[in-house]
Amino acid sequence: MYIMKDYLELLSSVGKLKKFQKNSILFYEGEEAKKFFILLKGKIRIYKSTASDKEITLHYFNPPNFIAEMPAFKKLNYPANAIFEEDGEILEIDFINFQNLCSENKEFNFLLISSLFDKIKILEKKLSQNALDLRTRLLKYLLENEKNLDTISQKQIAIDLNVRAQSLSRVLKELKISELIDTKKGRIEILNKDMIMKELW
């Protein structure tokens, strides 16, 4: 949400600046959402934990971005956990103070609505991805992250796609046999982008 850059100074007047180290938890699933946050620096991963302690990654957020404004707006509990994937900085905002700011500046209402629509789009994308088979999900992931594949480990891809490492390895082997990709030192390289796009579309 790049529009937020124009309002950060005003939002700072009703928020509290906080810094976090990598692997710090911003909030846990089930906690009362009295506050929401604006991510200023770093990266946050939103995830849920299963009964067997498996982590299911829902989304990553980069700055600047609203975090947890929907449960705060609806006066709900946080629906998932939030962890810093790297050192970061957030602006912590009490929702009541934000409501007062909205009453004084109507443009903030549109800012909030825009952010809520973004979250709905994220949810729709996640639901549509989960309906796809692993091969298709992986190919889409590789294209979407093509520029950063040399920095993404196979372990990270398994986490992002919420699959077991064994399942990912099996599909990677199939793609290598088809000469669509290659793997070097745990990193994936796309060999035939045209064929991948043809398979997907």
Automatic annotation (TrEMBL):
CDD domains: CAP_ED. Residues 18-119 form the Cyclic nucleotide-binding domain. This is Transcriptional regulator, putative. Keywords: DNA-binding, Transcription, Transcription regulation. One of its GO terms (cellular component) is cytosol. One of its GO terms (molecular function) is DNA-binding transcription factor activity. Pfam families: cNMP_binding, HTH_Crp_2.
